[in-house]
Structure prediction request, 122 residues.
Amino acid sequence: MNPLVESKSDAGEKVEVRLQAVLALLSGEPADDVQARFNISRSSLCEYKRRALDAMREALKDQKRGPHHPHNRLTEEEEASVKMMCERHPTLSSYQVKELLGEMRQLRELFSECETGSNCRA
Prediction:
């Protein structure tokens, strides 16, 4: 059998045994009984318990909800081009400005492809 597969299943079994040992310890069983039943040293058992409690504290902390950054954030260059377009054409709606900028972006990409010589469609 593949040694990688065996090691993954062994690692999963180890984690499960450690989890059951920590749960038994937290449920009030004496450490000596847990240590004997799961064949884990006392120092390792204390370390697993400490790590489990740290992970639970971290999991129960308040977390900021929602996105951590705006989804429609523009780069400075994009913002400048939008501002310039709005100043040049003050009567255009936001939808018309967006459409014009999209067309300009496509043209810019087309010209940059032609300059580099790759995939020129013109």
Remarks:
- Residues 1-6 have pLDDT under 50 and may be disordered.
